[in-house]
Design a protein that fits this description.
The protein is mainly alpha-helical. It has helices at 2-11, 21-44, 48-73, 81-91, 99-111, 128-133, 136-145, 150-165, 169-172, 177-197, 204-234, 250-256, 265-268, 277-282, 291-302, 313-322, 348-355, 365-368; strands at residues 259-262, 307-310, 325-327, 332-334. It has a domain at 235-368. A hairpin with a 4-residue loop joins strand 3 and strand 4 (332-334).
C-alpha cells in the first residue's frame, strides 16, 4: 500500500525523468575541466593568489562532481546505464568515494529504508541510553558532530572514513570483489594526484603547501558541504526516526521523513539537492536540475504529509540545538541531557492516519519553535 501511494505520486512526475543529453555532457565535461584546471592552479601555478583562489574553488567543484555522480547513480543523468556508471565513478574520484560502496549505501540503504535506524546509514540519532554507553571520546564526538563546524567532521570521519573508505565486513554484510576494486581505483587516483604534486617541487615544504591547497583543504570543504546538506535533509524537530520496522513504511520514509527546505538560491548549485531533497526521495529518477519543477506538483498532492521549513542561519542553529538525541519509544527529540526539546511527532494516531491516507498535519516553521 505504501509503495502504491508513492507510485501514484510518481505518475504525475513521469514527464520530468528525461534530461537533455547535450546538457548532461556539457555539465559533466565542464565540471571535470574546471576541477582539473583548478587542481593545476592550486598545485603548480606560481602566484600565491591564483593558488589560493583555485584551492577555494576546488571544494565546491568536488561537490558539483559528486552531484553529477549522484544523478548518474540514480540513472537520471544519462540514459545509457554503462555510460552512467563510468560518469558516476569518475565524477566521484575527487571526493575519494568507492562508487559501488556509495551505491550500496545511498541507493540500497538510504533510499530504501529512509530514517529506519538499523537500515539507513547517515545522521542516525542515538538514543539517550546509547549515548550514555559511549566512552568519553565517543560522547565528545557526538557533541561535536551536531555543531555547525562539526558537520564536516561527521561526514569525513563517521561516513567517509568508517563507511566508505574503510568499512568493516560486518557493516557491508557482503564484501564483494567490486567493493575492493573500486577502493583500489580510488587509491590509484589519489596516488596519481600525489605524483602530479611532485612536478617541479622544490622541497618538502613546497610539497606540503601543494598538498594542503590542492587536496586537503578542498576535501575538508567538500565534507563540510555534504555534511551540511545531508543533516538538513532528514533532521528536523518535526521529522521522526524509527527503531521498529512495524512502525515504518516506505511512504512514511520518503514523504514524512524528508524535509522540504526552502533555501536561498545561492545554496542550491553546489549543495547536491538541498532544498529539493523531498522531491528527490519521492522520485529519484528526476534529475536534480528538474526537481524544482517537481516540487509544486508533489506539494499539491501530499502537502498534509510533508514537513516544510524555511532555512535561515538562526533556524539552522535551532534545529541543531533541538535535534541531539532521539527517544524511539515516544518519538521525541532530546538534548544531550535527555530532556525533550519538542512534542511527540509520531503517535499511534499518526501511524493509523498515514496508513489510511488521511495524512498528518504539516510541521510548519512557526510550530517548530513551540
Amino acid at each position: 500500500m505504501a509503495k502504491d501511494r508513492i507510485l501514484a505520486l510518481r505518475r504525475t512526475l513521469a514527464d520530468l525523468h528525461s534530461q537533455s543529453a547535450v546538457w548532461a555532457w556539457f555539465l559533466t565535461v565542464s565540471a571535470a575541466a574546471a576541477y582539473l584546471l583548478c587542481f593545476a592552479g592550486a598545485a603548480l601555478v606560481e602566484p600565491i593568489g591564483v593558488r589560493v583562489l583555485s584551492a577555494l574553488a576546488l571544494g565546491p567543484l568536488i561537490a558539483l562532481l559528486f552531484r553529477i555522480a549522484h544523478d548518474a547513480g540514480h540513472g537520471s543523468h544519462v540514459a545509457n546505464a554503462r555510460l552512467a556508471r563510468i560518469i558516476g565513478q569518475v565524477s566521484q574520484f575527487p571526493s575519494y568515494h568507492p562508487y559501488s560502496i556509495w551505491l550500496l549505501l545511498h541507493n540500497g540503504r538510504h533510499h530504501s529504508f529512509t530514517n529506519l535506524r538499523d537500515r539507513d546509514y547517515i545522521w542516525i540519532p542515538l538514543s539517550k541510553a546509547e549515548y550514555d554507553a559511549l566512552p568519553l571520546l565517543g560522547r565528545a564526538l557526538e557533541r561535536a558532530y551536531r555543531t555547525l563546524p562539526g558537520l564536516g567532521l561527521y561526514y569525513l570521519y563517521a561516513i567517509w572514513w568508517r563507511k566508505m573508505a574503510m568499512p568493516t565486513h560486518s557493516f557491508l554484510q557482503k564484501d564483494k570483489l567490486v567493493y575492493r576494486i573500486d577502493r583500489l581505483i580510488v587509491l590509484a587516483f589519489f596516488v596519481g594526484q600525489l605524483a602530479v604534486l611532485t612536478i617541479g617541487v622544490t622541497g618538502p615544504a613546497d610539497f606540503a603547501v601543494r598538498f594542503v591547497l590542492a587536496i586537503a583543504l578542498p576535501f575538508v570543504v567538500f565534507n563540510w558541504l555534504v555534511g551540511f546538506a545531508s543533516l538538513l535533509n532528514h533532521t528536523h524537530p518535526g521529522v521522526p526516526w524509527f527503531a521498529r520496522r512495524d512502525e515504518w513504511d516506505f511512504y512514511t520514509g520518503q514523504v514524512n521523513c524528508t524535509v522540504h527546505m526552502q533555501v536561498p538560491s545561492w545554496m542550491v548549485f553546489f549543495l547536491t539537492d538541498v532544498g529539493l531533497h523531498g522531491a528527490h526521495h519521492i522520485d529519484p529518477r528526476i534529475p536534480i536540475w528538474s526537481l524544482d519543477k517537481a516540487e509544486p506538483r508533489i506539494v499539491a498532492s501530499a502537502a498534509p504529509d510533508i514537513v516544510f521549513e524555511k532555512w535561515t542561519l538562526r533556524r539552522h542553529r535551532d534545529i541543531m540545538r533541538r535535534c541531539k538525541l532521539y527517544d524511539y519509544d515516544t518519538h521525541r527529540w532530546l538534548d544531550f541531557a535527555g530532556c525533550p526539546t519538542g512534542p511527540e511527532i509520531f503517535t499511534a494516531e499518526t501511524s493509523a492516519a498515514l496508513r489510511t491516507h488521511a495524512g498528518r498535519r504539516s510541521f510548519l516553521p512557526h510550530e517548530a519553535a513551540a
